[in-house]
What does this fold into?
Amino acid sequence: MAKYEKIAESLRERIRSGEWAPGSKLPSETPDLTNQYKTSLPTIRQALAVLAAEGTVDKVHGKGNFVRKPRQLVTRSNERHQWEKDRARQSQETRQQTGATERDTGLTLGDLEFSAEFRQVEAASDLADLFAVPAGTALLERTYRTSYRDEGVPLNLARSYLVYEAVQANPDLLDASREPWPGGTQNQLFTIGIELDRIEERVTARPPTPDEAEELDLRAGVAVFVLRKICYDTEGRVVEVSNVVLPGDRTEMVFTTPLKRW
It folds into this structure.
């Protein structure tokens, strides 16, 4: 392990131990840290760059290095889908009490800010193949942003697609002002007679685009998860496709797979 990596680990442990609280300023690069670690300024800066890249510290030009306040953790497990299905047919009063985001974060409805934008688009070839419809078929594209009020930054970037003709059976589903919808997508599909049989999720990781990094307030070096969710009904048809970009510095993906006993 290089010297700057050892120093980064030492600083990381000191932060974790509570020596410096979130929001507090670290000792100066020079002379404090160079003297403490008996090394050169470039080595200290390399160590601090590692911590900045992982989101542990923020470097403020002209002011110094500060312990970054932890971002709200989002724990996304595959158990959320059965939880949503169990609620899909419950009363509106019950469904309004909490949603999947609150379940994943431990926050309350009052802690969150929601925005939704709907528009009609033509199915590109990849979506047309998934929905088994001709390219150019009308789809309802739904773009969602949910933010924690104390941070003002989206927890993720989500875009969902439904076949427009199917959604028209319930005109309320075309109205973005009705979001957040109590019970989420599974209840929306229930209102047009669709029950989900299974959900397939594929997760990859990559560097964020410049727009994603800006909107999600990502530090240099922080990757994003890209999740494609494909929902199948009880007849095996694809009825909804979602693309979700999740910031790597606040997202924990948990997969629990029940195993049959011998």
Remarks:
- The first strand starts at residue 57 and ends at 60.
- The domain at 74-254 is CATH 3.40.1410.10 (Chorismate lyase).
